[in-house]
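Help wanted!
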Amino acid sequence: MELCAAHRKPSLGSCTRCGVFVCDHCRKWMSEKPFCAECLRRLGDKPSREALWALGLATLGMLLWFPGLIAIPLAGRELERIRSGHAPEAGRDFASLARGLGWFEAAVGGAAIGVWLYRAFM
Amino acid sequence: MPTQQFPVERNGPKRIEVSWSGLWKDFTVKLDGQPLGSWTKDELSQGKEVPMPDGATFKAHLRRVGMNQELALLRNGRALPGSAADPVTLVKTAGGIIYFLGGLNTLGGVVGLSGVEFAARLFGTWDGVVVGAILGVLGFFTMQRSRIALGIAMALYALNGVMVIAETAAANGTPAIGGIFMRVIFLTAMWRGFKAMGELNTQPSA
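Answered by r_m:
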């Protein structure tokens, strides 16, 4: 039976990031996958800078429109990083909200531009 | 038959499944697919506890919070991550409401700008867009657990509600009951987020 190196207790699986055996004492979770405490500490428990930037740009897009469009791919990329275990889970809500808000702004702004163009040229 | 799944530990696999039928009838809880317990509607209203295989206690309680009902799912007295009573969920909901209100104002402002008179009267034009953006900024900081931002958003929203009622009364009109009802529900959710922030700020790992 494999033992956890830190606590010498029976392993419940291995860390998704570094592969070290983890026991019920040191097993942590992210995106429903097991991680060791050290890897999770390295990733941090705060949203990443990218997640904050994505939501910040989407928020700015409520006034200036264009930053909201940049937020969509940025948030999508961050969600992918979270899914693959390369960015902290804490950023998920930020990135999801940024993506949703970005699409909302794209739709509202796109419709407004469409109306403006229609009035200008028709 | 409504079914919801929750993790036992934050960000962990969703091991707990709750399901019920109709108005909280046949409420059952499963852990890893195995039945953990079942609750009658009365037991759910009073809050019944059952033991878990790891020695912890699980409690399901259908309680009244303001004008809403809330299904509290507690393990050893702490809300399951992602459940209605979870402080992280409450803060996220408060932030989401502020963004929703901001988005509504922005949308109204843009529609008003495009010449729709009804929207222009209700939300304004550029002023609606600016109010939406201000609410967005407050939502951004609320998501980062700023009690100041959430407090300002609550105060602005409550003040705006009072002004709308006063204006309607001054014009000898009757305030829209539906609008007041929605405001109370949103303000209650924001207030719960405000309280939850205090709880979360004392436990940084949550």
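OP: Thanks! One thing I noticed: Residues 51 and 93 of chain A are 9 Å apart (CA to CA).
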